[in-house]
Write a structure and sequence with these properties.
Blueprint (H helix, E strand, L loop, with lengths): L42 E8 L3 E8 L17 E9 L4 E9 L2 E6 L2 E9 L2 E7 L5 E8 L7 E9 L3 E7 L5 E5 L2 E7 L6 E6 L8 E6 L4 E7 L5 E7 L13 E8 L6 E7 L9 E2 L5 E4 L5 E2 L1 E4 L4 E6 L2 E8 L2 E6 L8 E6 L3 E7 L8 E8 L2 E8 L7 E9 L2 E8 L2 E9 L3 E11 L6 E12 L4
Antiparallel strand pairs: 1-2, 1-8, 2-3, 3-4, 4-5, 5-6, 6-7, 7-8, 9-10, 9-16, 10-11, 11-12, 12-13, 13-14, 14-15, 15-16, 17-18, 17-26, 18-20, 19-22, 20-21, 22-23, 23-24, 24-25, 25-26, 27-28, 27-34, 28-29, 29-30, 30-31, 31-32, 32-33, 33-34
């Protein structure tokens, strides 16, 4: 994912997948929800999300056969559907398709949704979109056509990641966390609480949250059967990077460099960049160094998948690919060199490595997005040859990267939690600036990057 200068073996880039579902049970409170009354129409509403975009998906039918409890009855002929995708940027895309028994198909403007009715009230599945976009969705049978709110947020604790939640006024809706889906329902006996249940275990309450600010904010707790636990929080504003609906998608990550520039990176676009559109950066796009004054960035993603930005005398050049923005940065002087990487759903850590022997210490940054891990290190002196990047995958909060060959040997191990990343780096390879080989061997530790 992160380019590295020539010399030594090149690291193969791995596309960052979305965060896996980690919200887990807080109890088994009652449903508190009621099925819609039988009528001549079927209406569904819920959430959709990918690495590039998120929002509300809703669709409905004309006359359809319903059971006495409001579930869709089995019918011989497909039910014709029309609907919309409403992105967090405000863009609306029309959809049309069918519900044929338990099989849902919807298409429109390059998007294709395919789902399965888990029961008559819940439909979940996957979708594809322009530029290779792919994601998941979950909808529930709705008793009204009222406007749904989309809340975006993070969960932390023994695991961490992001989620999208679409809620109707009756507190029903859909939840998407990576490639996992679920439903939301009101907690029985309450007026402001929501329970979340995964489609994979539809009777199991995996999280409970409290709505505030007129339903625009949510916070709560999660806990899984193994005992792992944590908290989560989200808001309508978080879906737009705090831009009040003027921003489309926010990417968060790190800028890796020498002692003069290292810290958190936030890129907020006017709309979701997919590699097939040209989208400008808007207010809120900044670098927040570990030490120093924040730097405002201006720039854009282009329709050929490129990305460029400037700020503080620095130039950033890279690509937008599968929900990731990554690349290298350069001037203001000949010895300025480093990498950057950001995703819509990742957690970025900025820290330091401490090598053994007479070797320069430096910065060590890590970006975790679901099971994907990307990171790198850079020596402190501006003319230091010490620089390397890596991409690997994590399991259970731990990750290992290893590669070796003639003249090089790379190894990085580490663990992460909601606030820190730490491990060891053992790296021998060709340095930058044609300065010969270098070797570093020692521990590193990092905490959440500032501003992210």
């Amino acid at each position: 994912m992160i380019p590295r200068p020539s010399g030594g073996a090149r690291v193969t880039r791995l596309a960052l997948p979305l965060v896996l579902l980690a919200l887990a049970a807080c109890g088994d409170g009652g449903s508190g929800s009621t099925n819609p009354s039988p009528s001549g129409t079927v209406n569904y509403a819920g959430a959709f999300a990918s690495a590039a975009s998120s929002g509300v998906v809703r669709f409905g039918s004309g006359t359809a056969a319903l059971t006495a409890d409001g579930r869709v009855a089995a019918v011989m002929a497909p039910i014709a559907l029309t609907g919309t995708l409403t992105f967090t940027s405000g863009t609306v895309v029309s959809l049309s398709g069918t519900l044929n028994g338990t099989v849902l198909v919807l298409t429109g403007s390059g998007y294709s949704f395919n789902g399965t009715a888990v029961n008559g009230n819940v439909i979940s599945g996957t979708f594809t979109g322009p530029g290779g976009e792919s994601g998941t969705f979950s909808v529930t049978l709705s008793s009204s056509t009222a406007t749904a709110k989309v809340l975006c947020g993070e969960y932390t604790g023994d695991d961490s990641g992001t989620f999208s939640l679409a809620l109707l006024p009756d507190r029903t809706g859909g939840v998407v966390v990576g490639n996992q889906t679920g439903i939301a329902r009101p907690k029985s006996g309450t007026t402001d609480k929501v329970e979340v249940l995964p489609d994979a275990a539809p009777t199991f309450v995996i999280a409970t949250g409290t709505l505030t600010n007129g339903g625009s904010d949510i916070a709560g707790n999660w806990q899984d059967p193994s005992g792992a636990a944590g908290t989560f929080q989200g808001s309508v504003a978080a879906c737009t990077g705090g831009g009040g609906g003027t921003s489309g998608t926010t990417f968060k990550g790190f800028v890796l460099g020498d002692s003069r520039l290292n810290g958190g990176l936030v890129l907020t676009f006017a709309a979701a960049p997919t590699g097939t559109n040209t989208v400008a950066l808007v207010a809120g796009s900044t670098i927040t160094p570990v030490s120093g004054t924040p730097i405002t960035l201006t720039g854009s993603a282009t329709s050929d998948g490129g990305f460029s930005a400037t700020g503080g005398g620095y130039t950033f050049t890279g690509v937008v690919d599968a929900g990731v923005v990554y690349g290298n940065w350069g001037p203001p002087n000949a010895f300025s060199v480093g990498a950057f990487a950001a995703t819509t759903n990742g957690v970025a850590y900025c820290g330091r490595y401490t090598p053994a022997g007479n070797v320069s210490p430096g910065n060590f940054d890590v970006l975790v997005s679901g099971t994907a891990v990307a990171g790198g290190f850079r020596g402190d002196p501006a003319d230091s040859p010490i620089y390397g990047t890596f991409n690997t995958t994590a399991s259970g909060g731990s990750y290992t990267y290893a590669s070796s060959g003639t003249g090089f040997s790379y190894s990085v191990t580490g663990t992460t939690n909601a606030t820190t990343a730490s491990g060891n780096v053992n790296w021998t390879g060709q340095g930058i600036f044609n300065a010969g080989d270098f070797t570093i061997n020692g521990p590193y530790t990092a905490s959440r990057c500032p501003g992210t």
